[in-house]
Amino acid sequence: QYKFRDLTIEELKNVSKAYPNFTFSMNTYTFKDGSQKDLLNFSGTIPVKYGNSYNIPVCLWILDSHPFAPPICFLKPTANMGISVGKHVDARGRIYLPYLQNWSHPKSTLIGLIKEMIAKFEEELPLYSLSSSDAARQSELLSYIAKITEGETDMKTRSKIGGKNEGCFNKITVVGAGDLGIACVLAVAAKDVADKVVVLDLSEGTAKGGTMDLEIFAVPNVEISKDFSASADSKVVVLTVNSLGNAQTYLEVIQSNVDLFRGIIPAVSHYSQNAVLLVASHPVEVMTFVSWKLSSFPKSRVIGVGANLDSERFQYILTNLLKAEVLAKDAWIIGEQGEEKVPSWTSCNVVANQTEAMAAHNSREKVANRAMEVLKGKGQRSWSVGLSVADLTDSILRDKRKVHSVSTLAKGCCNINSEVFLSLPCILGTSGVIEMVRLEEDPLVQEKLQSSAGSIHDLQQQLKL
Prior knowledge:
This protein has two domains: 5-129, Ubiquitin Conjugating Enzyme (Roll); 171-464, Rossmann fold (3-Layer(aba) Sandwich), CATH 3.40.50.720. The protein has 14 helices and 17 strands. It has helices at 5-18, 98-101, 110-123, 132-149, 155-161, 179-190, 210-216, 250-271, 284-295, 308-321, 325-328, 354-376, 382-397, 443-461; strands spanning 23-30, 36-50, 52-62, 72-75, 81-83, 127-129, 171-175, 196-200, 222-225, 236-239, 276-279, 302-304, 331-334, 342-345, 402-409, 421-429, 432-436. Helix 6 crosses helix 13.
């Protein structure tokens, strides 16, 4: 059934000669759409030096159009190995490499692929050793993944993987254990928002830094894990991770983040299929769009932290520093994070005539400009963003129906026709965005939003999802 049988056999001979430990067999592979096909695959270990020498178990499935199509590659961890999700490996062990993305016969070969695999794994080890208790859980997870590849998906099985059914608990998962992730955990704990907080620490090796301190000082109701199954049945999943790769250009930095999310979003979406995804990673507008696409969640359940912090600060400045409390209740910062954010309003007081309306508008603009100048001096530290995340999470879990300026799908608003996420005032509840609050019509604001949407859309078009 292989269209280019001789070329394929020649390649496999080269692999067998270079890596004699590999074994070959024909097995049934199940694709994402549920279709199945008998494919040749070979399994074995590749030598990787990461301080010490490691033999990393892998499995490569050879498509019937080989060598004109790249193989599908997976790690094959044993029960005492955990998968370190990163920019080259997702939660199921699927391997993603530039070599695969740029596959082109005859330049691309299986030997060349394995060499790049070794090189990338020597930069970022894809597996780590599990403790005996974690190994038991990993064994269950591997068994479940095997059932997925056989086309068996079962909600009851999914619940068992987490160790216990969390029921109606208000459970939150924070993905990432950097400064921002830890700040989110502490802020959520301080506001007593959740019954349980799971921190997914995706860094290499054992717990270190912030997560080690969380363990030392035993923050209540906080669990630290490297296993995605620990996030099962979360009501909110907060994304705080950012790739720390060797990217040189802004586009490469974002693409590195996209590669990282490609290994995270499908996993957390699988374990918490009814969760609200709350994105705090940068750039928040693009990464919220990426999360939406990779999760296949409805747009209402994928939001970014957006301008929530700036809006709260803006309203505080108007009320407490400029004594303009009447204006503050309808004032919002919208658009994209950074220098392109703009002030806007969700209502306007009715005035007797056009002259009074113009005077009121000019007065409001002066106050808004003064507030924006004060706002410019306020940076966004990890702890302040953490407080903003806790504020949003509180509104979602407690179904407060409170208005926040968050990154949401802006298509259809302000004559924006592209799929981009911008901060807009939205009512939040347990299902995420319940309703977008209508903004006062202002041609200058609409022009700025359209400009932001255009530049973000152009950037997204250059990314490889």
